[in-house]
Design goal:
Elements: E1 2-4, E2 15-21, H1 30-36, H2 41-46, E3 57-64, E4 67-77, H3 84-100, E5 105-108, H4 119-129, E6 147-150, H5 156-177, H6 185-196, E7 202-207, H7 209-214, H8 218-224, E8 232-239, E9 246-256, H9 265-268, H10 276-290, E10 296-306, E11 318-320, E12 326-328, H11 336-348, E13 354-359, H12 363-369, E14 374-378, H13 386-395, E15 399-401, H14 406-412, E16 420-421, H15 430-439, E17 447-451, H16 474-483
Parallel strand pairs: 1-6, 2-4, 2-5, 5-6, 9-10, 9-13, 12-16, 13-17, 14-15
Antiparallel strand pairs: 3-4, 7-8, 8-10, 11-12, 14-17
The structure holds ligand BES, manganese (II) ion (MN) and zinc ion.
Subcellular location: Cytoplasm
Main location: cytoplasm
GO molecular function: manganese ion binding; metalloaminopeptidase activity
């Protein structure tokens, strides 16, 4: 999104965007708006040309003073019911209508939505994410560009803050959308270095496959060794506070064929998204770094491609994790928990206040929660989750606490040849089993596990973006980290 702070509403005959409350007549700026419509605003409402029902979009032409102009309106419902999330939804929806009509220049009548400065954050955010265009290779692709102007002076800092958050989400979405022949561990490392190196308070370190083998990261190494494209373990530190770090761990399987426990042909399609956990951690880091937040965060990304090859791991293998646990591999398609085990061990070396991991981990979580809720597991009490659940509600990303207990731990230990096994091959409760597996590596550090298998992509277009990678949990976790309650 581009912004033009110079021109104002009356400058020319560009389209105008208006939010319409049921009780629009009570708006302090209504007279100004009505004057623009030559005193006819209510007639447009009475004729049904403009409607106030929440999220109802109308586009029409109107005589604004002396010019015929295009008018886009979005209903906001009753002003007393209006929340930040509803404003975001309405604004994102009207932007998508402008995009559909290929409108390239528009004025936003800011006060018709809200006279609160905070709304500018929502404008900046939704301006990036609602009209996001998935990374693609279409021959005739022309990116959509809209230049937005305002009817008054606006708080540019708030606007920029929202825009930065949106750009970070789109950065992560683009990584998820990239095809797996282009995006693999080594090429992802290059993109990470391009994005983060040289930024204030940021250090990046990368372990290649030789180092992983030498230093005993047996789980990540064994998964990644089945591919021509070798695995990497990436650590990004952003230290802009003296407190213990928050650790963010991401599953970065750049393609998940299943390995020798091969996926069926339909199950393999879309497995390029299996690095979305890592991509979304990168989006969280980018938000915090670009906004120069006073926090201490360390990101650990386990990057590998799960493929079939002569030396790929096979069901029945036993491998040794970095923390010394022996692991029986019963299913090579349960690779995410393997790479996360070693990544969590790495995160612990930073003595974090909390570890959060993000992973497209199980089909089972989709069965349990559908495609709009992220599954949340923890080794802490339910009370510990209150703050992160509050953040998720605040930003409108659904998050649901799922169980994990001793029975799952017992299942994880039910092997005769090793300390633990990666799959008990039973078709029930798979998300809890996977969580209990990762918990074998947390050493009692507070730990939250986000299973985003169902939510890493939007199943259909909504106000926050098209049917494509979602960048889920970036907004929730940034809010949670900035809230700082994990230090209480
Ligand atoms: N990446 C998949 C999980 C997944 C499935 C994500 C569908 C998004 C959509 C993961 O690596 C996997 O294959 N999990 C297996 C585990 C099983 C073999 C124990 C699953 O869920 O079927
Ligand atoms: Mn898999
Ligand atoms: Zn996977």
């Amino acid at each position: 999104m581009k912004y033009n702070f110079e021109s104002n509403l009356n400058d020319n005959n560009k389209a105008i965007v208006i939010g319409v409350k049921e009780d629009f007549e009570n708006d302090s700026n209504f007279e100004e708006l009505d004057a623009l419509f030559n005193g006819n605003f209510k007639s447009y409402i009475d004729a049904g040309v403009i409607q106030s029902k929440f999220k109802k979009i109308e586009s029409s032409s109107a005589v604004l003073q002396t010019n015929v102009r295009k008018v886009y309106t979005v209903g906001l419902g009753k002003s007393e019911d209006l929340t930040q999330l509803k404003l975001q939804e309405a604004f994102g929806t009207v932007l998508q209508a402008l995009k559909k009509d290929k409108v390239t220049d528009a004025y936003l009548y800011v006060d018709s939505f809200s006279s609160d400065d905070d709304f500018l954050y929502d404008v900046g955010l939704m301006g990036e994410i609602s009209v996001y265009e998935p990374f693609n290779y279409k021959k005739d692709f022309k990116p959509y560009e809209l230049t937005l102007s305002f009817n008054k002076e606006v708080n540019e800092d708030k606007l920029k803050e929202g825009q930065q958050a949106g750009e970070a989400m789109n950065f992560s979405r683009n990584l998820s959308e990239m095809p797996p022949n282009v995006l693999y561990p080594e090429s992802l490392v290059e993109l990470i270095e391009k994005e983060f190196s040289g930024k204030d308070n940021v250090t990046i370190s990368v372990k290649d496959d030789k180092t992983l083998k030498e230093e005993g990261y047996g789980l990540l190494h064994s998964v990644g060794d089945g591919s021509e494209r070798k695995p990497r373990l990436v650590t990004i530190e952003y230290k802009n506070s003296d407190k213990a770090p928050v650790a963010l761990v991401g599953k970065g399987i750049t393609y998940d064929s299943g390995g020798y426990s091969l996926k069926p042909r339909t199950g393999m399609v879309s497995m390029k998204y299996d690095m979305s956990g890592a991509a979304n951690v990168l989006g969280m880091m980018k938000t915090l770094v670009d906004q120069k937040r006073a926090v201490n965060v360390v990101a650990v990304l386990a990057l590998a491609e799960n493929m079939v090859k002569g030396n790929a791991n096979r069901p029945d293998d036993v491998v040794i994790a970095k923390n010394g646990l022996s692991v029986e591999i019963t299913n090579t398609d349960a690779e995410g928990r393997l790479v996360l085990g070693d990544a969590v061990t790495e995160a612990i070396t930073h003595k974090p206040v909390v570890i959060m991991d993000f992973a497209t981990l199980t089909g089972a979580v989709i069965g349990a929660l559908g495609e709009s809720r992220t599954g949340l597991f923890t080794n802490q009490s339910r009370q510990y989750l209150e703050d992160v659940l509050k953040s998720s509600e605040k930003v409108g990303e659904k998050l649901w606490h799922l169980p994990m207990d001793e029975s799952d731990e017992a299942a994880v230990k039910d092997t005769q040849v090793a300390d633990i096994l990666n799959s008990n091959l039973r078709p029930y409760g798979g998300a809890s089993f996977a969580a209990a597996f990762i918990n074998q590596f947390t050493e009692d550090y507070p730990w939250l596990h986000f299973d985003i298998a169902g939510t890493s992509q939007f199943a259909k277009q909504n106000a926050y973006g098209p049917k494509a990678a979602s960048g889920v949990m970036i907004r929730t976790v940034v809010d949670y980290i900035l809230d700082g309650s994990m230090y209480d």
